[in-house]
Amino acid sequence: MRSLINWSWRGLLPITAGLWLGIGTGFSEQGVDLIPRVPPDQLAEAKALHNPHSVTPDFVENGKALYEGKAFCSACHGVDGTGKEQDVRTSRVGTPSPRNFGDAAWQASRTDGELFWILKHGSHGTDMAPYLPLYLTEEEAWQIVTYIRSFGKS
Ligand code: HEC
Which domains does the chain have, with CATH numbers? Predict the structure, then answer.
């Protein structure tokens, strides 16, 4: 909980508020997506996290099954990972849309550890909830992270 309390959206607000109000700020929505979601005081630690499991075809396939099945990720991020075809309109006005995993610039801007951190803690102030340890084991989370990486490759 401490991390949530410590973290503030202050840094993002001027940019995102400007976007939502339609005032040209010079930042695209993609630019906002590239700003790290892990709070600054935990970013270095999150970036350094590595998948301790070996990545086999089965490992990735299980990530896909979880993404589309029990973990319900595809309901918001889409089966195709673009976040555009979600079958549930979950995003509230004034909060970010589900990330487009097919965006190569976004893929390049994140380490696997940052994605794992998001699965553990969620993205505070958005509809991206924490999944560990209640809904996913650490191994399952790494499987999904590995699967998310496949959206960046055509
Ligand atoms: C209720 C809708 C919803 C569900 C279900 C959901 N997400 Fe998200 N997700 C979001 C939103 C909204 C964002 C954008 C948050 C932001 O901009 O900070 C997001 C962002 C993310 C990010 C990007 C964070 C970053 O660093 O840019 C990752 C990774 C992610 N989700 C993975 C998942 C995975 C994996 C699942 C399933 C276990 C999942 N999400 C389920 C709504 C959802």
Answer: 2-150 (1.10.760.10)
Q: How far is CA 63 from the centre of its chain?
A: 15
The overall pTM is greater than 0.85: no
Question: What pLDDT score does 83 carry?
Answer: 86
| CA 69 – CA 122 distance, rounded (Å) | 19
Question: What is the residue type of 96?
Answer: P
Ligand 1 binding pocket (C-beta < 6 A) is 37, 71-73, 75-77, 90-91, 96-99, 110, 114-115, 118-119, 123, 126-128, 131, 144, 148
> For residues 71 and 89, what is the distance between their CA atoms, to the nearest angstrom?
17
| Predicted confidence (pLDDT) per residue in 117-138, tens digit | 999 999 998 989 999 999 999 9
Flag whether pLDDT at 154 surpasses 80: no
Q: Which of 85, 123, 136, 138 to mutate to test the pocket of ligand 1 (most atoms within 8 A of CB)?
A: 123
Q: For residue 71, which atom of ligand 1 is closest to its CA?
A: 38
